[in-house]
Amino acid sequence: xxxxxxxAVRVMTLFPEMFPGSLGTSLAGKAxxxxxxxxxxxxxxxxxxxxxxxxxxxxxxxxxxxxxxxDVVNDAIDATWPRxxxxxYLTPRGKVLDQAMVRRFAAEPALTVLCGRxxxxxxxxxxxxPVEEVSIGDFVLSGxxxxxxxxxxxxxRLLPGVMGNAESGNDESFERGLLxxxxxxxxxxxxxxxxxxxxxxxxxxxVAQWRLAQAEEITRQRRPDLWSGYAAVKKNxxxxx
Length: 241
Ligand code: ADE
Description:
By secondary structure, the chain is α/β, with parallel strands linked by helices. The protein has helices spanning 26-33, 70-80, 99-106, 123-128, 144-156, 204-222, 224-240; strands spanning 7-13, 37-43, 56-57, 67-68, 87-96, 110-115, 120-121, 131-135, 189-190, 193-194. Bound molecules: adenine.
């Protein structure tokens, strides 16, 4: 049974067999079974018009590769997008996905995701619909399906009731604009390596202070881009008192 807050996911793809894929296992798979989200895949090829069922053609102006036809993709969108929630097109040209976008998508009632193949989709169909172009990073995949899986995995784990420990969503990497502090578990000594003393102290405030300092240092060293944003916010907070 779907719960009232369930997220309705629709994926348009030339490879429907790629879904749910990894989203059918582990945390996302259990959430799917529990009705926390639902999945409908739409085979773009089923909207092909000719007897060869062609979905792509050569680019006007020449060049390598093939382009997905606007008429075929348009019919797929028209039949699939519920006119509520974002219509997301995965492309390396899109805005790069971050945790703030993931949170925004997790608050939607529905997500409709268009996966491109070949060189991409005819521009006119992207102009004809309120398409939000999203990239998962500065590299090129062979299609949008794996990128869609990444996006959906990040969204689904934030849905209400999906993560076991409700707090684990707020304290982790990126939620505060910082990378995660180092983690340790038993045994307290392993191959001669010990655990930072403060973590064994049972002193919660000191543990929190140590973790924040570690998160700050790791972020400063590894991600100057994140660090400058965090440092600016921190300075502002200090001013406000
Ligand atoms: N399709 C191909 N590469 C991609 C990327 N990096 N992000 C999103 N969609 C893609």
